Structures are given as structure tokens and as C-alpha cells.
Amino acid sequence: MDKRLEGNLPVYVQIMNCIREAIASGELAAGQRISSVRELAEEFGVNPNTMQRALTELEREGILVSERTQGRYVTSDRAAVLSLRKEIAEKAADSFIKDMGALGFTKEEMLDFFRQRIEIIEEKQVC
């Protein structure tokens, strides 16, 4: 999980996004216990209150669940995890389309560009 925080979003939102991405990618598995507030705050280099806010918001979204005296866990709700993954992918696709459109690419040019990039990446992974 990338713990570098920067940008114009509030820190707790950036932390939430990092944790969401880790869950969507499978880095944090469904049902997996996550580290304590203090441990995560130290890893991210933030105040424990900031971390607590991020985790509380993720609980409110249903992405994390809290078990009294047991700690916090990634939800075991597979549908919630798949929905999260789809939501993140849609945002990435929408951003790509918007940025490419701003550069003057047509729909067909965007598709061709994307296919070419996939091929280049696949070739690099083979080597």
C-alpha cells in the first residue's frame, strides 16, 4: 500500500483512498484484520485522530467492519469489494477519457492509443 500522502485532498481522504485501493486490488483481502489506529498512523506519518477519522468513514461506507475488542477488518461482503473495485476503475476510465478528450483525441484514437499501451506493457512484462 502506497503510504505517500500529497496533493490537495484532505489527509484523511487520501488515507481512505489508499485503503480503498488496497482492498480493491486484493492487497488487503476480504476478512483480513487491519493494523491498529496507532500502527497505521505511524506508517502513514499522521496523527492518530486523522487515522481514526479515515477508518471511521470507511466503516460508515461498509468497507471496514469493527469487532469490539477484536479490531477492524476488511468487509467479507464480496459484492461490496467488487462494487468498490468497479467504482475505482470507472473513476480512472472517466479521468482518462476526459484528459484524452482535452488533448483532442477522438473516441477511436483513444481506443487505439489504449490498445497500443496495453501491447507495450505486455511486451515489457514478457522481457
Question: What's the gist of this structure?
Answer:
The chain is mostly helical. Helices cover 65% and strands 6% of the residues.
Write the layout of secondary structure elements.
Elements (H helix, E strand, L loop, with lengths): L10 H15 L11 H8 L3 H14 L2 E4 L3 E4 L3 H25 L4 H20 L1
Antiparallel strand pairs: 1-2
Helix pairs in contact: 1-3, 1-4, 2-3
Structure description:
By secondary structure, this protein is mainly alpha-helical. Helices cover 65% and strands 6% of the residues. The chain is built from five helices and two strands, in the order H-H-H-E-E-H-H. Strands 1-2 form a two-stranded antiparallel sheet. Strand 1 (64-67) and strand 2 (71-74) form a beta hairpin. Helix 1 crosses helix 4 (78-102) and helix 2 (37-44) crosses helix 3 (48-61). It is elongated, with a radius of gyration of 18 Å.
Biggest sheet overview: 2 strands, antiparallel
The CA-CA distance between the termini, in Å, is 26 Å
Oligomer state equals single chain
> Low-confidence runs (pLDDT<50, min 5 residues)?
none
Q: Spell out the helices and strands N to C.
A: HHHEEHH
The chain-level mean pLDDT equals: 92
- Report the total helices: 5
Compute the number of strand runs: 2
What is the helix content? 55-70%
Rounded radius of gyration (Å)? 18 Å
Which structural class is indicated by helix and strand composition?
Answer: mainly alpha
Mass-distribution shape: elongated
- Order of strands, main sheet, comes to 1-2
- Strand fraction: 5-15%
